[in-house]
Amino acid sequence: MSEAVKEIPPYVEKYYWWAYARPWATRLFERQWLINLILLGNYIKLRDATLEEFRYMSGNTLQISCCYGNLTPLIAERILQSGGTLDVIDVLPVQLENLQRKMPPRESVRLFNMDSTALRMQDARYDRVLVFFLMHEQPQKYREKTLHEALRVLKPGGTIVIVDYSKPSTWNPVRYLVLPILGILEPFAIALWNKELAEILPEMSGSAWKKTSYFGGLFQKLVTVK
Q1: Which helix (H) or strand (E) holds 64?
Q2: How far is residue 182's CA from residue 92's CA, in Å, rounded to a whole number?
Q3: Which CATH architecture has domain 10-225?
Q4: How far is CA 84 from the centre of its chain?
Q5: Cβ(91)–Cβ(137) below 8 Å
Q6: What is the pLDDT of residues 85-140, one digit of tens each?
Q7: How far apart are the C-alpha atoms of 55 and 179, rounded to whole Å?
Q8: Does the pLDDT value for residue 226 go beyond 70?
Q9: Maximum Cα–Cα distance across the chain
Q10: Which of 3, 30, 57, 73, by CA, is between 20 and 30 Å from 95?
């Protein structure tokens, strides 16, 4: 892993210490069934929908932020088969250590302790960038900086894949159950109900964002090409 981030964003410690920032949290939440429960039984569907966008993994791939579950190890397997490389960044060393335990050491996979809003990487380095369930955890200004950094390090013709919460359909009864929970545990998630993620990148307003909705609109997959 690279040199440690000197300052962790204040919102991470304030709102998410219990979920990500402690070693005991990684031991608690690193359970496939629990992640599936948190996502209302949709983890496998969303994981597989993400993998659909990563069938051919030659070239360089960047995953912004670690995530619980087996998505990243499965991506790493495809990287190994395709001869590409995978870089994963996270602002929390404990999350990188947790990911490292899940994956056998490979030269094709590198872990970096970095802030997603200030990637220490050159422009146009990556063929594809994945952001899996990070956007809903960031305040708007961090969210915007993260996506602009993702765009900066992406090659022309490269692909960005974002999987996260979205505004559920009005007929979806789950919205009335999820709203108070997100309001308490995920204070920045509801912002995704009010503003489309694709609108955050005005320089890509002419690009065709392909949006796929899941579970009555509560989750979304966004894909676009730079």
Answers
A1: strand 60-64
A2: 22
A3: 3-Layer(aba) Sandwich (3.40)
A4: 20
A5: no
A6: 999 999 999 999 999 999 877 778 999 999 999 999 999 999 999 999 999 999 99
A7: 34
A8: yes
A9: 48
A10: 57
